User: What shape does this take?
Amino acid sequence: MKELTIISGKGGTGKTSILGSFATLSGNSVICDCDVDAANLHLLLHPDIKEKKPFYGGKRAEISPELCSQCGTCEELCRFAAIKDSVVNKYACEGCGLCYQVCPSGAVQLIDHLSGYCYLSETQWGPMVHAKLGIAEGNSGLLVNLVRKKAREIAKERNIPLIISDGPPGIGCPVISSLAGTDMALIVTEPTHSGIHDMERVIRVASGFGCLTAVCINKYDLDEENCRRIEDAANKLGVPVIGRIPYDPVMHQSVINGVPATLLEPGEAQRSIRQVWDQVTVLLGVC
Amino acid sequence: MIISVASGKGGTGKTLVATSLALSLAYEQKPVQLLDCDVEEPNAHIFFKAQPVSERTVSLPVPKVNYEKCQYCGKCAEVCQFNAIALMKRTLVIFPDVCHSCGGCWHLCPTGALEPAAREVGTVSVSQTADLRLVSGRLKLGTHISPPVVKAVRETAERDYITIIDGPPGSSCPVMAAVTDTDYCLLVTEPTPFGLNDLALAVDMLRVLKIPCGVVINRDMPGNQIIDRFCAENGINILLRIPFQTEIARAYAKGIPLVDSDKIWRDKFYNLYHQISGEVSQ
Ligand code: SF4
Ligand code: SF4
Ligand code: SF4
Ligand code: SF4
Assistant: This one.
């Protein structure tokens, strides 16, 4: 079983659209949305939810007013300023448990905290695992771990050779969680000044995981000069550029209509997506 | 006045709006600063030729063991809720990457064998252009706890300036740190189901934080009502529309702020500021 993770260093580069198209081209993979903060892949693939599991991402402190003597110790020691007048602000509390440990009256309890949900669904192109993190929740890295674990279980059970994951933007904890143990990272970038920057940073992050890494330039014809700079920068870092997708209104149509681009009238953009997909399957050895 | 710019998701044009709003004020000789709180991928500086003024590191305390005092009792590993400490036979292993710097371990160690030691998690730099002050935070590569860096950027703001905050994408903890205690939040979105989905998440977050907000539609296309409908249903004002135009995308790709690529945008963004001040002072 092989795993492909698409990342971008930044949102809005077209990562989700490309992954949605890959799902239709593959037709036999477990589809995984690791962007648990703002999952979007479901808007293209319209999964039918079969199972919904609560995700407890950590604990939160709670103070029983009957037991509390208002001594103020917890408020003084909490490094996240989450306690005020013996009341815990659940948005600020990190669940570290220090207040629970130090309270002289045993007034603090640590309670499992519901941070979101993990879904197992079916799409036309294979099973899909996705999640939704609650408002203002941390711990997205843990939820990503859970989503990926579930995807691996399903791949094993149903003997599916490939998992394709939509990674979260950025280089923070959820990205780290979505790269750990993956076989290949495909970085989608665009020829903007920031695109070059973001790509270099995310290549460095990916290189820490020792997985195959390749770059795909979306909207490459938006600025040919930046495109060359991206290619040079990727070359210097020893990462191949395996595809260029043109700036094409069809990609925008795909998002507006909630349909993967590969299912719309075929053109240049779709042809180049298919080329990238072919390269990916060769590199991963799953063709 | 502190205005944050958020989007629920990256790539919708948040930086485009934040830089242009800040510049439109600067061109009117207002004292303005732009805080780049997208510390995982700070990009605002690309749009300016700014001279560096100062830089400082942001550190968090993580425990350090004094092996002479440690009795290997295991208390620290037991109290750490994040599994950042493990006791293996007679060695104490600390994983600074997952430490939340809560202080539980060094506070509760019975022998005083643990002490907080500073660990660098990022930098905050201040620079100045002819027109405005720019403060950028940068998360150190390999670290992934960004809210403290976001907070450090905000602490570096000058008080008497109009402050524009370019926030991180998403609607989780780093964004919370960027928008909390701001007077107004501008939500940048695009008229697609993706844009709507992310906008709805961001609006929910702002409700929790009780921060007033308004919407800027980027890549707007005539006839597309998906965001208008949502805003009407939720009583949110649409303050500005930026059309879907290849020229705008090209200028942005070259690192040219919108207010510089076409001067009509100066007035539009300056007007945007006035609309916001109007809403805030109500
Ligand atoms: S659990 Fe930790 S963060 Fe939460 S209130 Fe107690 S001391 Fe503060
Ligand atoms: S430490 Fe315990 S008794 Fe003291 S204020 Fe906190 S909850 Fe109340
Ligand atoms: S609590 Fe203190 S003495 Fe006990 S194992 Fe930890 S460092 Fe050593
Ligand atoms: S400071 Fe808190 S999170 Fe860090 S190791 Fe100590 S107990 Fe764990």
